[in-house]
Write a structure and sequence with these properties.
The protein is mainly beta. The chain contains five helices and 47 strands. The chain has a 22-stranded antiparallel β-barrel. Strand 18 and strand 19 form a beta hairpin.
């Protein structure tokens, strides 16, 4: 009962914020009387014009200027000192609006007449955007890519490294934290890192209205959204017509790596219907060469291993999203998507072992496969509750994922006595062959339901609340077979039927407002009740977990100088990170005869407390310092197999603690109008405490991630670039990675009024060898990757459209966090 009272009290604290009436930020001296002003901006079809700039000027002194920006519903609100004004709306893709004159002279809210804008189809450059490149809010950066000339001719993915704290090395990360989720038009992308890269490469950066970089996700997002959110809003698109794009990327590396990625997107809107569809195909063939050295101290065994691997991956998929407007306030949407992947990995390797008495030779041949099919269906209902943008959203989702993973493994081994030639005592050579195969079949079913309320209370006051329930059920059939007496026989110790069921019920509420014209805040609370049932038939184990967690969040921002763009922001929250479902399967996959990848059904969720402080200057320079304290952090560590001490297992396990301190700097500099330097740098100090073999060990290491991008904007659509990246050695548990670096050079040429772009780039100009080491009390191991990553890259993109310019709506889904755990 005491716990229930605590939960109810915390929710009341966020609801109590509704009685606080904040004031909007402005450049008005403190104490000057002000008038609240609000209104809407519509197009000629009476559709809202989102992210439009309103310019307010004093009629008798045009140097006194104030601005406001509409939200996605075309609504704006601000506060102005008593005076006579005229207002004009400006937005890319529209002619400037007619000027409206009015008087602000009272304390009651002044509702201005609707402003109607006419689309500019023939000459989009005629429209004017008055906005800063980067704006800092209490919990996020808002980047206006339209105002950045670097965006011209680039894909969106190629532009991400120019955002504050964002890097795209080995997936998208913010401030060095992996697991970043990507949203497009308020819809989370449920894709792998490779699919997200391909999808964002199909979007031109110049077609993006804005990108919001949210380093710490608030209470309205699932509590396991630990890596932050990248929220992308597309520009307004066509009505009574269509728009779309087609693109193709091809790459060839010096080591014969090759890839091709054609894809397309097509959308149209007519009357009350909006339809968006996209499709993609990807092929990659990649060879790899690895050298391993292992030494066991107890028996003085040394192992030298050389592997050659060739990997082929084919992926394809598509999605269609349809929205129907029931009336001006209600709409329904449906999303259907399908994707499949087929991957094959062929590995040939040789291992040489030596002890004081014996020498061994192992020749292995390993053929693995990884296939999946995925089908997703979603439906949503959105109701606009009032004229200022308050909404109620209901969503239901279903996802089915079927996968098959396995392989066939053969080993021929030969042993010889080292001292035969000395003692003349003939020790017989020992020969042995070993063959086994496995198959892991998995079926995943995910069902989700959401109900969310977003209430606009006027000014900067906003209240959000909602609930979510999702159920995940996974059935795994794990089969291992040994080739004995010329036939395949099941290995009863490893064959298993493994089931996993997870139910999560969540409630959340957030409230945003301002304490004064300079102080902004957002407080939130999320409660999640989780039920987990896990059963393994082979080991006769059944584990049930039931737990309730609270996840509070706070964002506080002080606007030091709003006109110059100086602000400082504090963020604090609590999060949970649940492991991907594939890590929970009790499987064992060989890398070679002495190294295996092993699943861990005993993995527990990790819980973290995160703090960050951000200083922003001149709307574009930012410095972030922060810390994360994580209990039960799960990371891959290396341990000796308890049944075979000459075998090392790579397995994800819960560390006792993971502490991370970091500082991130973003500094774009325009040296000339045609030359821009952008630097993103993250410094981290990581400390892990983990348990291997019953003893607690500690690893700690400073890490630096630095990126420097030099871009040139030349006449006739030429845009050369030179980019560099450096990552110092990383540490995770007892695994250490050597430093990594890259130098890329290329050029983009825009044609046909920026509808066509051609990019030629040479990536990874400097060849490098990646070294990974691990050391325990009784062993040492190093692994060197000799893959040549120097790659010639060619890309061709073409965009087309027909019709007027307004917003094409896209349906939302609610199972994105759960889908991400399928990767």
């Amino acid at each position: 009962m005491k716990l229930k009272i605590t939960i109810f009290t915390l929710f009341l604290m966020t609801l109590a914020g509704l009685s606080v009436r904040g004031q909007t930020q402005s450049a008005i001296p403190q104490g000057t009387p002000k008038t609240p002003v609000s209104g809407k901006v519509l197009d000629t079809k009476q559709e809202p014009v989102a992210f439009c700039t309103l310019v307010f000027t004093v009629q008798n002194d045009s140097t006194l200027l104030f601005t406001a920006v509409t939200d996605e519903w075309g609504v704006y609100a601000t506060e102005l000192p008593y005076n006579y004004y005229k207002v004009e709306a400006r937005c890319l893709g529209y002619f400037p609006s007619e000027v409206i004159a009015f008087t602000a002279s009272g304390s009651e809210t002044l509702q201005l007449p609707d402003i109607v804008m006419e689309a500019s189809v023939t000459n989009l450059t005629a429209a004017v955007v008055q906005s800063n490149t980067i704006e800092r809010r209490a919990d996020r950066f808002i980047v206006n890519l339209s105002a950045n000339p670097i965006a011209s001719g680039r894909s969106l993915y190629e532009s991400l490294d120019y955002l504050p704290g964002v890097t795209t090395r080995n997936g998208i990360s913010i401030n060095g934290k992996s697991g970043t989720r990507v949203m497009v038009n308020n819809r989370m992308l449920n894709m792998s890192d490779e699919q997200i890269e391909q999808y964002l490469n199909n979007l031109r950066a110049s077609d993006i209205q804005r990108v919001e970089v949210i380093p710490e996700a608030g209470a309205e997002y699932d509590a396991n959204a630990t890596g932050g959110i990248l929220k992308i809003t597309l520009k307004q698109q066509t009505v009574t017509g269509y728009f779309g794009s087609v693109s193709a990327d091809v790459a060839r590396a010096f080591d014969y790596t090759q890839s091709s990625r054609p894809n397309f997107s097509f959308s149209f809107r007519k009357d009350k219907w909006s339809v968006i569809t996209n499709g993609y195909y990807s092929y990659m063939g990649m060879p790899s060469k690895f050298e391993e050295y292992t030494r066991f101290y107890d028996n003085e065994m040394e192992i030298n291993n050389a592997n050659t691997t060739y990997q082929k991956i084919n992926m394809a998929g598509g999605e269609i999203s349809t929205v129907y407007d029931l009336n001006t306030t209600q709409s329904i949407g449906v999303v259907a998507n399908y994707g499949y992947a087929k991957g094959v990995v062929n590995t040939d390797g040789t291992s040489l072992t030596s002890t004081p008495l014996l020498m061994g030779t192992y020749i292995n041949d390993n053929n693995q496969y990884n296939n999946y099919n995925r089908l997703g269906l979603s439906a949503n209902y959105i109701h606009k509750l009032d004229s200022v943008g308050s909404t109620c959203t209901a969503m239901v989702d279903y996802l089915y994922n079927q996968s098959d993973n396995g392989g066939v493994y053969h080993t021929f081994s030969r042993f010889t006595g080292l001292f035969d030639h000395i003692t003349d005592i003939l020790l017989p050579n020992v020969y042995d062959t070993l063959s086994y195969r496995n198959n892991i079949g998995s079926q995943n079913n995910i069902i989700s339901a959401n109900l969310d309320f977003d209430i606009k209370l006027g000014g900067r006051n906003n209240f959000k609340a909602g609930g979510k329930f999702f159920r995940t059920q996974i059935d795994n059939d794990i089969l291992y077979e040994d080739f004995v007496d010329r036939q395949w026989k099941p290995d009863i110790l490893q064959t298993d039927q493994f089931t996993y069921t997870e139910n999560v019920s969540a409630l959340y509420s957030t409230y945003s407002s301002s304490l004064s014209r300079k102080w902004l805040y957002t407080i939130g609370l999320r409660a999640e009740y989780t039920q987990v049932n896990l059963h393994s038939s082979a080991h006769e184990e059944k584990a049930d977990q039931h737990y309730l967690n609270l996840f509070p969040s706070l964002n506080l921002s002080f606007q030091q100088n709003s006109l110059r763009g100086h602000s400082i922001s504090l963020t604090a929250n609590r999060k949970i990170q649940r492991p991907n479902f594939s890590l929970l399967r009790p499987y064992s996959m060989p890398l070679n005869d002495f190294s295996y990848i092993v699943g861990n059904p005993d993995l527990k969720p990790a819980k973290s407390i995160n703090l960050s402080l951000v200083q922003t200057l001149f709307h574009k320079y930012s410095l972030t310092v922060g810390a994360g304290f994580i209990q039960d952090y799960f990371a891959q560590i290396v341990t000796q197999d308890p049944l075979n001490p000459d075998r090392l297992n790579y397995q994800f396990a819960n560390l006792k603690s993971h502490t991370q301190y970091y500082a991130a700097l973003s500094a774009p500099v325009s040296i000339f109008n045609w030359w821009t330097l952008t630097s993103n740098a993250v410094g981290l100090y990581i400390k892990d405490q983990y348990n291997t073999g019953g003893e607690t060990e500690t690893s700690q290491k400073p890490v630096v991630v630095a990126m420097l991008m030099s871009n040139f904007i030349l006449p006739n659509g030429w845009r050369p670039e030179i980019n560099g990246m450096y990552i110092s050695g990383m540490v995770q548990g007892n695994i250490t990675t050597s430093h990594m670096y890259a130098l890329n050079a290329g050029c983009t040429k825009s044609l046909l009024k920026d509808k066509l772009s051609l990019t030629l780039r040479l990536n990874n100009l400097i060849h490098q060898r990646l070294k990974i080491t691990t050391e325990g009390a009784t062993y040492y191991k190093s692994n060197i990757n000799n893959m040549d990553m120097r790659t010639l890259y060619l890309s061709l993109r073409y965009s087309f459209n027909s019709g007027q310019r307004v917003n094409v709506k896209k349906a939302s889904t609610g199972t994105e966090e759960e889908k991400a755990r399928l990767q």
